[in-house]
Amino acid sequence: MVSRFIHITFRLLAVVALAVISVGCEVISEGDRLIAIPLPVDTTDRTHVLIEYTGFRCVNCPKAAQAAEELHQTYGDRLIIVSMHPASNPFTQGVARYDYTCDEADEYYKYMGGSATTPFPTGNIDFVQSDHGYMSDYTDWATLLAAAMAAPTQVYLSVQATANAAGDSLTIRTTYSADALTECRLVTWIVEDSVQGAQAMPEGGADTHYIHRHILRRAIGDPWGKAVTARPFPDELVNTAPLQAEAELRHYSVVAVLMDENKQIINAKQTTIQ
Amino acid sequence: MKGERRHSVLKKGLTALSVFIFQFSIAATQDTVFVSGSVQHDGLFPTRDVSGVRSHPRAPWAKIDHLSNNYLDLAVHYQCYDSNAVHFRGLHADTRLELNQWPLLGYEAAFAGHGIGRLSLTADFEWGHITVGDVYGQFGSGMLLNLYENRDLGIDNSLRGAKISLMPVRGLHLTLLGGKQRRYWNCYEDKAWGWNYTQDAALGADLELSVGQWSPRMQDAGVELTLGGSYVSRYEQNDTILTIQDGTAYMYNLPRWVGAGEVRAEVQGHGWDALVEYAYKANDPTMENLYSYRPGQALLMSLSYSRKGLSLLAQVKRSDNMSFRSSRKQTGIAGRLNLLPVFTPQNTYTLAALYPYATQYVGGEWAFQAEVCYTWPRKTKMGGRYGTTLKFSAAHVRGLKEEGSWAINTTTEGEYYTDIHLELNKKINKRWALNALLMYQTYNMQVIEGEGEIVRTGVAVLENTVKLTDQLVLRNELQYLYTRQHEGQWMYILLEFNLWHQLTLSGTWEYNIGGTPGELKEHYYTAEVAYNRGAHRIAAGYINTGSGFNCSGGVCRYTPKQEGVKMSYSFTW
């Protein structure tokens, strides 16, 4: 009986061992883990937009902000970062003086499937939906951005923003054109940079002197913009909007975004307020 | 000669096949065929959009006023009692229809959908089982593989493939399985119905030897020694994942096959049970661990003792980077191959469960648990007329000392969770029984939820069950939670009347007393009527509940605030 047991056991072990060897396991040695590749860069006029959903109570959001900043340093003015603080997510809520939310941020967040339970930090490139939905982890942003860079644009855009002497009114001139007739939506955002406030930090506790970057404050007009037709020659759209007199204009910028009929960003430009 | 042998083998094979087919004939007098199944419906008519779900512009249920989870399980069993050449014993066909297009609140977005969630065919033999279709199972304590369904959490992580369990001789158990893991409705992503293994798949083998079955000396001594080992390998096609470091773009060289092994030994005898289990996972860079190549490890040690009236338990676990998923981009509660054993108590009282612990799969943890349960016998000084049971348990979880900054949930050395329990169960007289609980808890909200402070709570619970008449039973719960952090103090009252053992009327009131800057000062209440008859249960009521976490086995699902009319029905046959 015992010999039969041993015999069967060894036969089974042999089968298992064979299965293990055949399917195995790939162990990647330390020197082979990263493969250097050419930096993917869009050679056309296109500028891409990284939407960063964040909140001051989110512990890991500073890591995502750092990742976004690294991408910005790499791609320069080929990439615009816009940080959105959606009110629907509890990471943005709780203390009124650190409330960086705006209705438009919540509108876009819900459009992308965000809810109270969506884990933060998360983000999106150009309002494009990937295999896993609109939202993606910050570890994926470099990959998604590289894919976006592979799609050149045929729509061109430039924007200028000028404040009046009193500093209470803003005039935005947007010029757009396309190689062929293209139906678009022109969206304009006001973005504020370098806002000092509290932020939960990965190492624990909160940093009350944290600098929040690229905060979306509002959209000029409809959050989904105005319908325009881009033609092979430049068209100009002029918008005016009130400004808060006390606002430090040097921290504000205007982002103009052209979206296609699927609400995907096909080009964008950012300008400081003159 | 060779030809004759081949002919003989062929003949035997055909004989076996014909016998096998014959066994399906239900004309055989001793064989039986029966159908079993269940229906489950849990629904909510939200009266107020407190969680903003109905205003969700992309949600297909945006204009739907009824949210529900619906399941229909159906199984056909054929049992064969005649001995035959292939030792065939039976056949089971299992299927489950899921209608969760507009699910209850708090489930992950991908949970929404409808279709056949389970389809499998199992053949039973004297020497084991063979399943084709959706397979479930667990290797050892589940540190490498635990395929299960939990409807409360919305988890079904079965593999669509095959499973073979062999018990060729006494004391030996071999399991081989493989397939593509279910991640909500990924089987409908292509036309292969989950049978396409080119993108991802998992394979596993488990061998368990009951040594005591082969040793007369061990049998005489009343001791059983079980040795086991498992291997699980996950395949996933290569992804292009980029990272930019110092202005240079790099692509991760990702392993397509990730292997993990586990060994275990368990000794049982004379009321004692000692278990040691160790698991190792090779480099598994995933989105969850920020593409770290560091191997994962887990060690579990458990010692328990049980005799009439007394049970003891002491357990230790150390785990590090042991999230093992079928897809490297999967996060959330779906797509996990393993389930680390939870070393914190599963609290059932509402306020005791207000701050539940969620296992830290990626960042790792040290977990300790001890429990003593003693029952004083009847007619003793402490036991009284009906006996008294006292249970003391303590659980403590803390972070690893090693630098774990690669973990997405920031790993910090220090206390994650502590739970110290003292519970008394006493039957006072024929009609009155009570259960009292005192609990101290420390909850590291930042580690467990991603933001917040360390919350220290004290909880007191008194539960009374009073048999007013033979047909009327009253149960009540009084609960109080004290804390100076987060939302502050809470109180909770439950009243439940059970009439004729069939009709249950219950109501709860929960109030946030507050006392902290984060206080809610809100009232939450529920009222429910439930009726049981045989295997049927129907319930309806009004609920107004706060947000929180629903946890099971260390896995948690956030449940948002909700208000509305709730209905449920279940039937098992």
Please count the helical segments of chain A: 4
CATH class of chain A: Mainly Beta
Coarse shape of chain A: globular
Class based on secondary structure composition and strand pairing of chain A: alpha+beta
Structural class of the helices, strands and pairings of chain B? mainly beta
User: How many DSSP helices of chain B?
Assistant: 3
- List the helices and strands of chain A in order: HEEHEHEHEEEEEEEEEE
Radius of gyration of chain A: 24 Å
Alpha-carbon distance between the termini of chain A?
93 Å
Helix content of chain A: 10-25%
Put the structure in a nutshell.
The complex is a heterodimer of chains A (274) and B (573). Chain A is α+β, with helices and mostly antiparallel strands and 274 residues long.
What does this structure look like?
The complex is a heterodimer of chains A (274) and B (573). Chain A is of the alpha+beta class and 274 residues long. Chain A has one domain: Immunoglobulins (Immunoglobulin-like). Chain A has helices at 2-23, 61-75, 103-111, 141-149, and strands spanning 34-37, 48-53, 79-84, 122-125, 155-163, 169-178, 182-192, 195-200, 206-212, 215-219, 226-230, 235-242, 252-259, 265-272. In chain A, a hairpin with a 5-residue loop joins strand 5 and strand 6. Chain A is globular, with a radius of gyration of 24 Å. The model of chain A has no long low-confidence stretch (mean pLDDT 86). With 573 residues, chain B is mainly β. The relative contact order of chain B is 0.09. The radius of gyration of chain B is 27 Å and the shape is globular. Chain B starts with a helix and ends with a strand. Helices cover 6% and strands 54% of the residues of chain B. Chain B has a 24-stranded antiparallel barrel. The chains are: A alpha+beta (274), B mainly beta (573). Chains A and B meet through helix 1, strand 1, helix 2 and helix 4 of A and strand 11, strand 12, strand 13, strand 14 and strand 15 of B. Strand 1 (34-37) of chain A pairs antiparallel with strand 15 of chain B, so a sheet runs across the interface.
